[in-house]
Structures are given as C-alpha cells and as structure tokens.
Design a protein that fits this description.
The chain folds into 3 domains: about 35 residues, no CATH class; about 70 residues; about 70 residues. The protein is built from 7 helices and 5 strands. About 5% of the residues have low confidence. The strands form 2 sheets. It has a 3-stranded antiparallel beta sheet. With about 200 residues, the protein is mainly α. The longest helix is centred in the last third of the chain and has 27 residues.
Length: about 200
C-alpha cells in the first residue's frame, strides 16, 4: 500500500504513466517521505541484491561452443569480490576453454552498442511510425466512440436549426433531450477510454 502511486494521482496503464490522471488522496511530499523512510529501514541483505544482477543472462552465448554464458561471482584471496560471465560448458561439462569475461566491462560494451543502434534518428522515426500503426490497430473502441459523438453533435445542431425554423413539437423536444443525454454519455466514455488507454503521439 505504501508503494501505491495511485494515491498521489498517478495513473498507470500498461507501460504508460499519466501524472494527475486520477484524484490524489495523499500529498506528494508525504508520499516521498514515506519512500525515504522505507528505504532507510530496509533489511541489510536486500541492499546488495542489485549488485549481483547480470544484465546479459540468459542472452549471452559462448562464441566457442554456443552454450549459455552464466553469471558468476567469487572472492579472491585478498577478499575482493569480482563478477564475471562464464561458459556453462566449463561449469557443467568441462569441455570448453572459453575464458571468463568481466561482468562490468562486457556489459558496458553491449550497452554502448545498444545506445549507438537505438539513438539512430532514422531508426527512431521508423519505430515511432510502427508504434502509431500498432496503436491504431489496438484501439478500435475510441474511434467508434468519437465518430458516434460527432454524429450526435451534428444531430443536436440539426434539431436546433429545426427549432429556430419554428418546428417545435413534443417529439422534437424529447429527441433533443435524448441527444443531449447521449452526448454527455459518449463524452464520459471517451474520457474514460482515453484515461485507460492514453494515446501516444509521435513525439
């Protein structure tokens, strides 16, 4: 409960986060104080959990025997702890002579290459276009609601024109009231849909 960011008005839908998307019931400064307090009182072993995370496992394969490289940590005679990637062929089958590779150095090289690839302007443009295409395929409800809303607004406008031209009967009055209610209902549904599935812009 103490980690729930909905209490500060943050709405999350899949990987999209919308600040102030819902009414906040806890002040932001109080929420942040709670987070700081919890961070300070965490149990000691948990503080070092991230140190042993191996980013490339299980994505790294040995260039000699094509088996998975696995993360491994050890302590030297001088009590210094080191982390590396080691071929599972050495660990389990003892039939590969691939040397172990330092974790930090290898991960730095891979991350740099990823950064070089994904910071390419042409690729970013292509990804943005593809995301928008997929988004258009996924959300079929919102376009239909907006179309119906536009038709309802047009219907209200036609009714008002008829009334201005002197055509005012019980039926026209009832029809206008019905359209106004329909418009309000559609507006609410559109807002709800946009909150639950906010649309990404190309930017």
């Amino acid at each position: 409960m103490f980690h729930n960011r909905r209490y500060i008005g943050e709405y999350r839908c899949r990987d999209i986060i919308q600040p102030n998307g819902i009414p906040a019931i806890v002040p932001l400064d109080l929420f942040e104080k709670v987070q700081d307090r919890m961070a300070q009182t965490k149990k000691a072993p948990a503080k070092h959990k991230a140190e042993d995370d191996y980013l490339l496992s299980p994505k790294l394969y040995c260039g000699k025997c094509n088996r998975l490289m696995v993360g491994e940590s050890a302590t030297s005679k001088t009590s210094k702890k080191y982390h590396c990637y080691k071929c599972s062929g050495i660990k389990k089958f003892h039939d590969c002579n691939k040397k172990t590779i330092g974790k930090d150095a290898l991960e730095a090289i891979v991350l740099k290459q990823i950064e070089n690839v994904y910071m390419d302007d042409n690729l970013i443009e292509k990804i943005a276009n593809e995301v928008l295409k997929e988004q258009a395929k996924e959300n079929t409800t919102l376009p239909l609601l907006k179309k119906k809303y536009a038709e309802t607004v047009k219907g209200i406008s036609n009714m008002l024109d008829a009334i201005q031209n002197g055509i005012l009967t019980e039926s026209t009055k009832e029809r206008l009231e019905s359209l106004e209610l329909q418009k309000a209902d559609l507006s609410l549904k559109i807002t709800k849909e946009e909150l639950e599935r906010p649309l990404l812009t190309k930017e």
